[in-house]
C-alpha cells in the first residue's frame, strides 16, 4: 500500500530562499543512514527514499555525495518521479559548485506513459 501523504506542515518554502550546501557538505552523506544526492544543482536527502526507490537503493547509494543529474536523466524519470523529488529537496548547491545543467523536464515518452486518460 502506498502511504498517504500526511500534511505535517513540511514547509511550503519554495518562496523562501533555499538552504545552500557545498559539494563537500553533500559528500558527508553517502551512507544508507544518511544519503544525499545532487540533481540539477539541487540537493536531495533521499535517506528515507532508499527503500522505496523503484530503481533500487543501490543506484542512489552509488551516486550519493555527488552529482547524479546524468544518471537521473538517462533513466528518463517520469513526471511522477519529479513530483516525488520535491519531498526530498533540502537545498541548493552554492554557486561555485554548480554545474548549471538545464532541467529539460521529463522525456515526452516518460510523461505519456503515466497519463491515464479518463
Ligand atoms: C530523488 C530522486 C529520485 C526519485 C524521486 C526517483 C524516483 C523514481 C521512480 C518513481 C521510478 C519509477 C519510474 C518512473 O516513474 O520514472 C524510478 C525508477 C528508476 N530510477 Fe529513480 N529516482 C530518483 C533518483 C534516481 C537516480 C539518481 C538514479 C540513478 C542515477 C535513479 C535510477 C533509477 C532507475 C535505474 C530506475 C528504473 C527502474 C526500472 O525501470 O527497473 N533514480 N525512480
From TrEMBL:
Membrane topology: Single-pass membrane protein
Listed InterPro entries: Cyt_B5-like_heme/steroid-bd, Cyt_B5-like_heme/steroid_sf, Cyt_B5_heme-BS, Cytochrome_b5
Taxonomy, superkingdom: Eukaryota
Cell membrane recorded as keyword: no
Coiled-coil stretches noted in the UniProt entry, renumbered to this chain: none
Organism, scientific name: Homarus americanus (American lobster)
Bias kind Basic and acidic residues: ranges: 96-105
Family annotation (SMART domains): Cyt-b5 (SM01117)
Family: Belongs to the cytochrome b5 family.
Record-given protein name: Cytochrome b5
Listed PROSITE patterns: CYTOCHROME_B5_1, CYTOCHROME_B5_2
Domain (Cytochrome b5 heme-binding): residue spans on this chain: 18-94
Gene: Cyb5-L1
Gene Ontology molecular function terms on file: heme binding; metal ion binding
Region (Disordered): 94-118
UniProtKB keywords: Electron transport, Endoplasmic reticulum, Heme, Iron, Membrane, Metal-binding, Microsome, Transmembrane, Transport
GO cellular component: endoplasmic reticulum membrane
One Pfam family this sequence matches: Cyt-b5
Subcellular location: Endoplasmic reticulum membrane; Microsome membrane
Amino acid at each position: 500500500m502506498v502511504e498517504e501523504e500526511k500534511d505535517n506542515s513540511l514547509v511550503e518554502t519554495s518562496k523562501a530562499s533555499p538552504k545552500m550546501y557545498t559539494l563537500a557538505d553533500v559528500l558527508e552523506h553517502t551512507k544508507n543512514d544518511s544519503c544525499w544526492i545532487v540533481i540539477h544543482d539541487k540537493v536531495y536527502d533521499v535517506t528515507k527514499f532508499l527503500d522505496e526507490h523503484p530503481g533500487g537503493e543501490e543506484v542512489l547509494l552509488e551516486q550519493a555525495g555527488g552529482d547524479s543529474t546524468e544518471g537521473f536523466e538517462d533513466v528518463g524519470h517520469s513526471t511522477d518521479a519529479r513530483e516525488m523529488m520535491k519531498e526530498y529537496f533540502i537545498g541548493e548547491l552554492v554557486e561555485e559548485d554548480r554545474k548549471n545543467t538545464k532541467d529539460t523536464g521529463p522525456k515526452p515518452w516518460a510523461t505519456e506513459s503515466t497519463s491515464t486518460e479518463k
